[in-house]
Amino acid sequence: MFSEETALILVDLQVDFMPTGMLPVLEADQVIPLANAAMQKYRTVVATQDWHPANHGSFAANHPWRKPGQVIDLHGLPQVLWPIHCVQDTWGSEFVAELNVDGITKVFRKGTDPEIDSYSGFYDNGHRKATGMGEWLREQGITEVHVLGVATDYCVKFTALDAVGEGFNTVLLEDACRGVNMNAGDVEAAIEEMTEAGVSISSTVAITA
Asked: 144 and 170 in contact (C-beta within 8 Å)?
């Protein structure tokens, strides 16, 4: 068991990001048993949850003649357009049934503002509004966070980068992450960006041994 100052962050372990979901991430289902095993080592487990309104600006379907994968300007920020996913109160937005949700201490929802996307569990993509996760973690006396989930090159990466920015010692549990890899090398580049920012790399095997 880790000390009370260390928390685990589960990033977006939701139905729509699984291989059969609306925004499938290859092998994302393989993360779930690793997450369940890792959770037993922490007193504090935080989960992020993509929670989009149906009219969200990141959905390609909400932009005439646009398709997923294209990049547009959305209120001053570059925005990758995605398939409709994790719409509030739909099955696709729920945590995967196999995930031990009873082991989750607190859930933070993100992407709730239709005008801006939110990859990070801490902030929206423009750092205009906080989710409250950073403040809550500090209130619990947390100084170190370990991060796993999907997707390595988007929500995991930005959550880890913001964790460093918020002053937390940050560790990526790489074996329990999976990426979109829209372009070849995206996952490798994301991991390099995280390490350069000060994120340490480890694995669930190392912490559960």
From this structure: yes
Domain that holds residue 200: 6-51+87-208
Q: Which active-site residues does the annotation give?
A: 12, 110, 155
Does pTM top 0.85 for this prediction? yes
Q: Which tokens sit at 66?
A: 């646009």
DSSP the chain: ---TTEEEEEE--BGGGSTTSSS--TTGGGHHHHHHHHHTT-SEEEEEEE-B-TT-TTBGGGSTT--TT-EEEETTEEEE-B-S--BTTSGGGSBPTTS-GGG--EEEEE--STTS---SSSB-TTSSSB-SHHHHHHHTT--EEEEEEE-IIIIIHHHHHHHHHTT-EEEEEEEEEE---SSTTHHHHHHHHHHHHT-EEE-HHHHH-
Note the pLDDT tens digit of each residue in 87-130.
999 999 999 999 999 999 999 999 999 999 999 999 999 999 99
Q: Using the CB atoms, write b or e for 32-45: b if 16+ within 10 Å.
A: bebbbebbeebebb
Number of domains in the chain: 1
CATH number, residue 150: 3.40.50.850
Residue 82 lies in a domain: no
